[in-house]
Amino acid sequence: MPSITFSADDFWSLIGKKLSEDELRRLLDLAKAELDAALTSEMTVKFNDTNQPYLWSPEGLARFFRAALGKRVLPLKLQKSDIVVNVDKSVAAVRPFIACFLAKGPALSEYLVAQLIQLQEKLAENFGRQRKKVGAGLFPASGMPFPLSYKAVSPDAVSFVPLGMKQELSLKEVLEKHQKGKEYANLLKDAKKYPLVLNGKGEVLTFPPIINSDITGKVKPGDKELLCEVTGTDFEGVMLVSTIFAYALSDRGFAIYPAKVKYGSKSFVTPRVDPSLVKFDQSLVKSLLGLDLSSIEVKHLLERAQYVVKGPGKVELPPYRADVMHSVDVVEDVAIMYGYGDFHALPLTSFTPGGVESLQEFVDLLRVLCVGCGYQELMSAVLSNKQVLYDKMNVRDFGTVEIENIMSQTFSCVRTWLLPVLMDVLSKNRHVDYPQRLFEEGLVTQRGKDVVDERHLAVVSCHAAAGFTEMRQLVESILRSAGVSFSLEEFEMGCFIPGRAARVMVNGREVGFFGEVHPVVLEKFGLSMPVAGCELNLTSLRQQ
Amino acid sequence: MDLKKLAQSLHLYERRVLPEIEQHPFVSALSQASGLKEVEVTRALQWLENKKLIRVSVEPRDVVFLDKNGSKYAREGLPERKFLQAVQVKEMPVGRLAEKTGLSSEEVNVCIGLLRQKAAIVLLKDKELKVKLAEHGAHVLKNDFPEERFLRRDFPVDVSALSKEERAIVDQLRRRKQIIRVDAERVKKALLTDLGKKLVDLGVRDENVIDALSPQVLSSGSWKSKQFRRYDVMSGVPQVSGGKKQPYRAFLDVVRQKFVSLGFKEMSGPLVETDFWCMDALFMPQFHSARDIHDAYFVKEPKSGKLDERLVQRVKDAHERGGSTGSRGWGYEFDVDRTHRHLLRTQGTACSARMLASKDLRIPGRYFGISRAFRYDVIDATHLPDFNQVEGIVIEEGMTFRHLIGLLKLFAKEFADAEEVRLVPGYFPFTEPSVELYAKHPQLGWIELGGAGMFRPEVVVPLLGKYVPVCAWGLGIDRLGMFKLGLKDIRNLFSHDLAFLRQSKVM
């Protein structure tokens, strides 16, 4: 979630009035944004909707506020301009798109420089996917020789002095030696040629999206002419970001001189400032929101959300927004400006019988029976590790779903059975009074031909006299009470003492097992107390 | 307190001990006098003190213990006896005495000294030194040795309880080698209070009191003529830890029951999911930064899962150009391989997506799920890799955002006991409009209770084959659970600390 910091006084002057903190918070809610802390001379605002990047500057946010407060937002008028950017087709394979414009205005203050850099960073990091999809640059532009050209060259073909260094480096060396080069080198790891923006004299302006050249320099207080360059792999994203910048600078009193970007025979004027026409099915106000509103009322609400109504079913979206895909997006803006708090709630009136999942009642019955036998229930993480599941239990892996990108060895696979989880709990509670009688019911996942989730129930009893008989009594007691007819078979498993374990059979199918835990296993868990345990597969038990 | 009631409340041990305290203020003596074991006496004293019938002080005291040689002599008799028996018949050279009596030369020397003092023997000086039985010696031998009598007592013995003669014996024996030992101990001394004296005067040795009601007492009918001892019902008893549900799970049981009572059916889905159900079916674009917050645990094997390819095609169309949903789509090339990729379920909403595409779906219908989900995040003491999510959908023709708001207000009332709610515009990739729900809990104040919205047509149409309004919601109820269970620490929801679980409250 992006967040930006700016001066409160600056913001009040942008919206033309000072707001109370309550009013500020109410309007931020409408922008799906919130104050990070109490309001002071500075405010930090966090945005929850990542699809509206134009809001990530005080200028954009103020535009939203002005419209929401009922003021008109004027469209941006471009100046006459003959700036040209020639795009060579060599960039198509690496970073195909560029947008560009010149801005002339009052001398930049230190504050404004910081704000522009903040917007540039937020757009590139959050919207631009760490510059991969879109990256933007701002340079001082007075005396800039045009036309610009955008092309891709071999990593060793061109050298220039990157910003912050003294000597010339080849593009390849920039990625190896410059701090920004190292940071973003992975963006070009598959590229055979690297992109460059050159000025009219053929000098390197920037090596996007890595670093500007030293001759281009940085934007600094006092600058009056700026060049904005946006490159990326997504055409719409590049266009949108350049428009967002143009509007922000225009709101600060800058005149915007567009560039004609030529892709062979095709060309585009950037920034794009024409509003986009979107379809709006007004009947959704009634059918989706449940509101009975006249067209005029809807029009007013749309205007407060910065739309321009162009006629029935047609609205214009300001050019710095690109988040409308469907009429429902427009309808949400109507609902937001109407005020969620002003909706009259309606009750659901249809009859729908409730119910739990098919296995749940059986599961709950067995849980209650275990509780009745004096067992404490547990609930554990579903993730576990093979050391606990198999090594410590003295058994072989019986089909495990393992995690590829583990965060911690302790949680490196999905549990396949529950008994080891309970053994682990016993090993953590050696200082607690005995007897310890525990059970857990929950999902386990086994990988055979398919990946299958099963619900298992495991029980352990741990005390000086714990043994086979007690566990058999428990299993018999709970299954008898649950109305399950079963039989027992002799059973061998590495975790149990040979001759002291049994398999539980229902209709000729195994549904679980129990027995006296082998001292080898007890030792591995650091237990010096006998344990008897059982594991039942409730999913297959229920199917029988 | 009523003296009679008090008398009736005395335990058998107390009744035995109390009348003896005047005479025998120390535990060992009380044990002898009452016929109880010392630990029983000690417990009785504790109870009596609690009832303010006695005062117990700790005093230093000398206690006699039998030592190594002492217990041998208690069994076999003192060396003096063997010595006298040996010289009884005829005088004997000192040099042969050790061999004749089986005593050590040291013991022989001690005997000579002692017996001469008592005038029981005389020493004759001939060619060699000889011992002869004196006239008094024969008399001594005929009688009991008071020292032997003393050694045959039960030890340890309290010095203060001894007679003057016995004390003289103690003084004498402790000078000899390893016969007795006298140690200073700090011992409890009991003293009757005025109330205690009154009770003793009243007579507490009444045997007509029943302590434990037993089958014998019942079958003999003896209880009919006796009094039941009154228990001190206020005194503490040892703690018992019975079986019980896990507190958080019990809370989720209540939540489940609540949904059922509100007409919701439970749904579920697999832990190992595909990108398709976790994200793509929910119209989250494969490239979008919204997927950053859903970074996932990927699965080693099998890398991908099976899907209904007709559904995949419809979702692909919706993503790319909107398909038949009326949307312009995200405008990118949908990766069909990626949608099959296996991962651990990132959000419970995957179950809702599955429900929409299920043949079991009923319209109108209300569905809920309490599902485990996994978040790819740093695991430490406060973050576990998996957690429970409570979410669901309502599907109904003619349903609007106003019904969703009604539903959210109902949830606020049912789950947070809240009459007041705050509804704030929210953002979820799969709903439009989207709303965040805050509820004013009577004790916790304003809490974030959940998020909700109307599923986008791009979600509903590909999965269901047509558009019907669907409300989708998720509730963050862990905080409420912690509040109801009196927990401060979220880690305790999945606690493996048995001591904690045994103390914990359960719903």
Structure write-up:
The complex is a heterodimer of chains A (544) and B (507). In chain A, strands 4, 5, 6, 7, 10, 11, 12, 13, 14 and 15 form a ten-stranded mixed beta sheet that branches. In chain A, strands 19-22-23-27-26-25-24 form a seven-stranded mixed beta sheet, with helices on both faces. Chain A has a three-stranded antiparallel beta sheet with strand order 1-3-2. Chain A has 544 residues and is of the alpha+beta class. Chain A has 16 helices and 27 strands. Chain A starts with a strand and ends with a helix. Helix content of chain A is 29%, strand content 28%. Chain A is elongated. The model of chain A has no long low-confidence stretch (mean pLDDT 94). In chain B, helix 3 packs across helix 4 and helix 14 packs across helix 21. Chain B has 507 residues and is of the alpha+beta class. Chain B is built from 22 helices and 17 strands. In chain B, the strands form five sheets. Chain B has a seven-stranded mixed beta sheet, sandwiched between helices. A three-stranded antiparallel beta sheet of chain B has the order 5-1-6. Chain B has a three-stranded antiparallel beta sheet with strand order 2-4-3. Chain B has three domains: 87 residues, no CATH class; 93 residues, Winged helix-like DNA-binding domain superfamily/Winged helix DNA-binding domain (Arc Repressor Mutant, subunit A); 255 residues, BirA Bifunctional Protein, domain 2 (2-Layer Sandwich), CATH 3.30.930. Chains A and B meet through helix 10, helix 11, strand 19, helix 13 and strand 22 of A and helix 14, strand 9, strand 12, helix 19 and strand 14 of B.
Summarize the structure.
Chain A has 544 residues and is an alpha+beta fold. In chain A, 29% of the residues lie in helices and 28% in strands. In chain A, strands 4, 5, 6, 7, 10, 11, 12, 13, 14 and 15 form a 10-stranded mixed beta sheet that branches. A 7-stranded mixed beta sheet of chain A has the order 19-22-23-27-26-25-24, with helices on both faces.
